[in-house]
Amino acid sequence: MTNDKLSLAADFPEADNAQWMALVEKALAGKPYDKVMRSSTYDGIAIEALYTPDNARIDTHTISRSGEWHIMTPHWSDDPARVNADLLEDLERGASGFAIRLKAGAFPGLDLSELKAALNGVYLNMARFQLLPGEEFEAASEAMMALLKADGHDVEAYSGTLGVDPIGTLAQTGRLRHDLDVALRTAASIAAGNSYPGISTFNVDGSVYHSAGAAEAQELAMTVATGVAYMRAMEQVGMSIQAAADAIELTLAADADIFIGMAKFRAARRVWAKVLESCGVVGAKETRLNAVTSLRMLTVKDPWVNVLRGTAACFAAGVGGASSITVLPHDTLLGVSGKSARRIARNIQIILSDESSLSRMDDPAAGSYAIESFTSELCDKAWKIFQNIESDGGALSVLRSGFLANEIEASWLERRRNIANRKDPITGVSEFPDINEKPLRDVTPPPSLPPESVSARETLSPLPFHRLAEEFEELRAKSDALYADWGKRPRIFIAGLGRPADFTARATFAKSFFEAGGIEAIPSEGFTDMDLLKRAYEESGASFAVICGTDGQYGDVGLSAAETLKGAGCGRVFLAGRPSNLEALQAAGVDEMIYMGCDVLDILGRVYELLGEKS
């Protein structure tokens, strides 16, 4: 095999970056290149418009997943019979593993005493397991080990993780039943006594930080820093650094940002490998890197879109090299998932892994200029944050001091601003909402929160749980409540001016704008006759109105429309667009403009305040 370049365009003259830039500048017509054609991630990593051999960064590496990924299914119910039935069905129909959440502290899940019943009929030597034990990790580990011993197969036949993660549990729930130092010693002792080579003791769950609002490099850095803390704890009970490394696996959240998601999982292996190399670990077994689709990205409203989000996330994690993937069903936020939702989530993985053969390729993203560059930049960013965490005393120190919470909150607030102005759109919620959607039926209520029967010895303020759609869905919940009281939703009248061609674009924008907050948009024909406009508004039953037309119309008929609507008792008159004659429009009765880039959440929130005053 030669190193000669394969020219796919040999008959055409070679184009260089300068020629491309000249064409781009012509197309931009004076708009700034950096603003239009460049962007950045929430970690500050630059995203170029075009990646070429001249600006790409490809670092040498050989780290990737070997073999196919495990298709995992989640089980959050507190009913052992339900868990058992769902689990057996999943394994019979394509899953190769399962995750079970156990009740711990104030966290709902399966009672530990019911674990044996939930696993009845499951061949534990043929399916990978993942426990989510929370602060009850000691009792859960003992129970699982007892079940494996009673199962009777050779110790090498089993694969899974006991899921011990006291630092992550403290960050998520704000409590542990023991002092963290005691919890770490106990966890390390479990690892020292674990004689099952295919079962890891620790599972560092980075999705905790992702759900709090962390950007990708922050999630990577805190995951790695937590892993280092566990390695230190295992060293203190006499384990070799090699054995300590083998006792740890990592879990990251996978969201719908496919390209950055691929890079995150690829970067995780490299950063962790750099940690092991720095610690002198030689010849460690392949690090298990698990993926769970993001709770942060899921929506309550229009949950069917979650199927698409789960597919994108699974693709990113699979191509990025995850060892196992858990796709949360699209109805996860509504309660205990129904059979249909479980089947869809399971089949997403089967189609991508088996039918599309993604799991049979070694590092499919390798060589992509963009993905390689993202991976390298993420590695650098995550490593710097990790070093800062270590210099501040490590994962536990930054958690206790509040430094971590402050850093993550700053990242979340930046993301929240982009959600509020719809720069980061949420399909089905902030964009293209269906305010009259039918609720899903095949869902049972979620497990109720158990009482805190065991007192906590270690407490701190837990990291918040954020969802991208949370504030829009709070407004939608207000709309649902008003609908229950009034028999109709709050309404806004769309006052189109002139012909449909004049107002349709802005009317469509306005409809999506207000219905994202549960305010029903009442359409209308175009108006030039103000008497007809007044009558149509009064018949609509709306409390507010939005004027939609062209900037040219806003200079004459728009003024008359604003005066007419105010005279008809309209509580607040909005106008779609940003015309130059704002002062004249305001004098005529326009209260506020809506446009691309304005704070949608702020405007909709104030509309509900006005509704509260009226009621």
Question: Could you describe the 3D structure shown?
Answer:
This protein has 22 helices and 17 strands. It has 615 residues and is α/β, with parallel strands linked by helices. The protein has an eight-stranded parallel barrel, surrounded by seven helices. The protein has a five-stranded parallel beta sheet with strand order 14-13-15-16-17, sandwiched between helices. The protein has a two-stranded antiparallel ribbon with strand order 1-2. Helix 18 (500-515) links the parallel strand 13 and strand 14. Helix 7 (180-192) crosses helix 9.
Quick overview of this protein structure:
The chain is α/β, with parallel strands linked by helices. It has helices spanning 17-28, 33-37, 80-92, 115-118, 137-151, 166-173, 180-192, 207-211, 216-236, 241-246, 258-278, 305-320, 339-355, 369-391, 395-401, 403-420, 470-486, 500-515, 530-540, 557-567, 582-588, 600-614, and strands spanning 39-40, 46-47, 70-75, 97-101, 128-132, 160-164, 175-176, 199-205, 248-254, 289-293, 324-326, 458-459, 491-496, 520-522, 544-548, 572-576, 592-594.
Give the topology:
Blueprint: H1 17-28, H2 33-37, E1 39-40, E2 46-47, E3 70-75, H3 80-92, E4 97-101, H4 115-118, E5 128-132, H5 137-151, E6 160-164, H6 166-173, E7 175-176, H7 180-192, E8 199-205, H8 207-211, H9 216-236, H10 241-246, E9 248-254, H11 258-278, E10 289-293, H12 305-320, E11 324-326, H13 339-355, H14 369-391, H15 395-401, H16 403-420, E12 458-459, H17 470-486, E13 491-496, H18 500-515, E14 520-522, H19 530-540, E15 544-548, H20 557-567, E16 572-576, H21 582-588, E17 592-594, H22 600-614
Parallel strand pairs: 3-4, 3-11, 4-5, 5-6, 6-8, 8-9, 9-10, 10-11, 13-14, 13-15, 15-16, 16-17
Antiparallel strand pairs: 1-2, 7-12
